[in-house]
Amino acid sequence: MGTDYGRRVGFGVFASPEADSLRDLWALLPVAEHGGLEFVGVQDHPYQRRHLDTWSLMATALARTERLRFFPDVANLPLRSPAIIAKSAASLDVLSGGRFELGLGAGAFWEAVVAMGGERRGPREAADALVEAVEVIRLLWSDQRSVRFEGGHYRLAGVRPGPAPAHDIGIWLGVYGPRLLRALGRIADGWVPSSGYAEPAGLHDMHARIDAGAAEAGRDPASIRRVYNVMGAITDGASTGFLRGPAEQWVEQLTELVLEYGMDTFVFGPAENPVRQVERFAAEVVPAVREAVHRERG
Fold it and tell me: pLDDT tens track of the chain, all 298 residues?
């Protein structure tokens, strides 16, 4: 049985913070903005020697754009204090006039994390820390005079929140395991999986866990955004696999991902030639998917 939460369909681009690819990024942003895309997700792997600091890059990119909304895809929690993440996110939201969302992950590539001074966490520890971090961040965005928190990984001892974000920032979690998916349904605003780690065939079961968590918290599952990082190539030849083929194939498969597989926002990571690929995505795929979804929903 298909899953469609009825949400408006959104589109964006997945950006790499590689220092030697800045020319491509600066060329890509106006294409995305003028092409009607809404989001730019920037990966956050501080231990990658070729990567610029994601937060510094997002600040610069926000200053160079007027409409695009940015988010870390996803922020590396083991190397970043949730209190500082909260301050940085609120600051970027204020400075950009409300164009920042927060993608947050439990951590991966632990050898690299430890090499950079981070704490090695097992699966349960990483999950617990992520859930705590969401609570810490929300406390520091609140209008309370001061906040306290005592967890197994993080603590606040009478911190005064502020400044407040310019808008209600969404916290979107990049998680895959059953326990964190259920927690996401209870505490988060969105889900950010990647197609390489969460293939379409497995999405229904993952949605079910999110929805069960939402039900436990008395929340509407449709209030949770479902963002899909999709990697592939728009070509002029025959299909060579999932999201590797002509624009017509992309339209068909993305429309199916909305109506049958429950996703509502697609962040495109081009396999090559990013500027031209995003031009084609914006012109040939995005409007056709929106039209097909509208038509099928009636």
Answer: 589 999 999 999 999 999 999 999 999 999 999 999 999 999 999 999 999 999 999 999 999 999 999 999 999 999 999 999 999 999 999 999 999 999 999 999 999 999 999 999 999 999 999 999 999 999 999 999 999 999 999 999 999 999 999 999 999 999 999 999 999 999 999 999 999 999 999 999 999 999 999 999 999 999 999 999 999 999 999 999 999 999 999 999 999 999 999 999 999 999 899 999 999 999 999 999 999 999 999 8
**Does a structural domain hold residue 1?**
no
- Tell me which residue has tokens 């997945």: 14
Helix, strand or coil, per DSSP, at residue 69? strand
Q: What are phi and psi of 7, to 5 degrees?
A: -75, 155
Give me the number of domains the chain comprises.
1
Whether 3 maps to a domain, the answer reads no
Residue 143 contacts by C-beta under 8 Å, 6 or more apart in sequence?
A: 161, 164
Residue 219 lies in a domain: yes
Interatomic CA distance for residues 240 and 244, integer angstroms: 6
Which ranges of the chain would DSSP assign to H, the alpha helix?
Answer: 22-34, 54-63, 82-96, 110-115, 123-140, 178-187, 200-216, 247-259, 274-280, 286-297
User: What is the CATH number for 118?
Assistant: 3.20.20.30
The DSSP 8-state label assigned to residue 153 in this structure reads S
Enter the tokens of residue 254.
């993305």
State phi, psi for 61 to the nearest 5 degrees.
-65, -40
Cis peptide before 42 (omega within 30 of 0): no
Residue with tokens 């990697």: 231
Residues 6+ apart with CB under 8 A from 32: 12, 13, 40, 68, 278, 282
Pairing type for strands 102-105 and 39-42 reads: unpaired
Does residue 4 sit within a domain? no
Rg (CA), the chain: 19
